[in-house]
Write a structure and sequence with these properties.
The complex is a heterodimer of chains A (114) and B (115).
Chain A (H helix, E strand, L loop, with lengths): L3 E4 L2 E4 L5 E7 L6 E7 L5 E8 L5 E2 L8 E7 L2 E6 L8 E8 L5 E3 L3 E5 L1
Chain B lengths: L2 E4 L4 E4 L4 E3 L1 E4 L5 E7 L5 E7 L5 E4 L2 E4 L9 E3 L8 E8 L9 E3 L3 E6 L1
Parallel strand pairs in B: 2-12
Antiparallel strand pairs in B: 1-4, 3-9, 5-6, 5-10, 7-8, 8-9, 10-11, 10-12
Classes of the chains: A mainly beta (114), B mainly beta (115).
């Protein structure tokens, strides 16, 4: 099946710094990608829909100025957590739908903010 | 809106035991239904799916049948293995154009299989 990669797989940063997470579709093009956040032992919560060539669509309660999304090309979306704080520590997962609408998930990025 | 209610875990079974994880949903129209599996430290992998009523999805010995009359999509496996230990998520994708690609997830069920 299709492959979605994420980089980095884990990152530790100091409070107040910004962290960029990349999501790539390796063998297919994705005009849309989804960003999820997963807290320990909890489900995935959709944060935003990344749209190639236009602004991202954020879910209610998600701060767009804090979680910057850029869908630079048909195979790359980035999520930047700006001025990170310990409460932003979480597992961030992206997904991309194929032309058949099947979702392929990245392996996730574990962010720890000290 | 759409929602998925999943059996709470954790579930602990002995190897070769029978597994059922209940999942019910609320949605308008005719959603597609999915089971995803997440191994420790990894992202989600599609386990099986069903796109219309009475469809049965199956993979790796797991099965789930799309029951529209009971709005359910329960996951079953006749004989679990230690390697099945993971978190299982039930999910749906709505049929309306606005939510055509978006998934709604259940809370996840942690399964531990003991040797």
């Amino acid at each position: 099946g299709a492959v979605v990669s994420q980089h980095p797989s884990w990152v530790i940063c100091k409070s107040g710094t910004s962290v960029k997470i990349e999501c790539r579709s390796l063998d297919f093009q994705a005009t849309t990608m989804f960003w999820y956040r997963q807290f320990p032992k909890q489900s995935l919560m959709l944060m935003a829909t990344s749209n190639e060539g236009s602004k991202a669509t954020y879910e209610q309660g998600v701060e767009k100025d804090k979680f910057l999304i850029n869908h630079a090309s048909l195979t790359l979306s980035t999520l930047t957590v700006t001025s990170a704080h310990p409460e932003d520590s979480s597992f961030y997962i992206c997904s991309a739908p194929s032309v058949y609408n099947e979702q392929f998930f990245g392996p996730g990025t574990r962010l720890t903010v000290l | 809106g759409n929602s998925v209610t999943q059996m709470e875990g954790p579930v602990t079974l002995s190897e070769e035991a029978f597994l059922t994880i209940n999942c019910t949903y609320t949605a308008t129209g005719y959603p597609s239904l999915f089971w995803y599996v997440q191994y420790p430290g990894e992202g989600l992998q599609l386990l099986l799916k069903a796109t219309k009523a009475d469809d049965k999805g199956s993979n790796k010995g797991f099965e789930a049948t799309y029951r529209k009359e009971t709005t359910s999509f329960h996951l079953e496996k006749g004989s679990v293995q230690v390697s099945d230990s993971a978190v299982y998520f039930c999910a749906l994708r709505g049929s309306s154009s606005g939510s055509a690609r978006q998934l709604t997830f259940g809370s996840g069920t942690q399964l531990t299989v003991l040797p």
